[in-house]
Please model this.
Amino acid sequence: MRFSAPALALSLALATWSSSGQGQRPDSQIDARSMAMLGEAQAAYRAGNFAGAEDLLETALAVDPRNRGAYVAMGQVATAQALPGKAIRFYRAALTLEPNDLAALSGEGIAMVQKGAVDPARANLQRIRTLCKGDCPPAMTLAATIAKGPPAPVVAAQNANVVPPKGKEAATVKPR
Model:
């Protein structure tokens, strides 16, 4: 009886420890079905079928949510559809899995410029240049996008500080 409590605790600890690793794949091993869907989605994206690519990518992420490439591809689809907020969200999900992913950093920077947030995009460019130790294709793409600047409607919206009055208020405003 003196050894039963410690023996029970030790056996419980060993049983828990030995079963914790069973059935889990390492993070670097992505489900093959998810990777196949990612390939199909990239082909659909190149063909201009953004809705089909998005559906395939969502399925790929449902199969294996650790598929960083699918998050990056979802960001590319959202950027192509002029949805920068959505794109940034997907790129950040990819960066959560791998903080030094150059494609995700560059894509996030491009989406930030598309949204009008040029300063954070410059921070991404600096981080890419630090990781690349110079200019690499993601850095050059992001630098070109930053140099081009945000789209005209975004700039116009940022520069419009005063909203013109509507209705009765418009009639009472006198020009100076």
User: Anything to note?
Assistant: The mean pLDDT is 83. The first helix runs from residue 4 to 20.
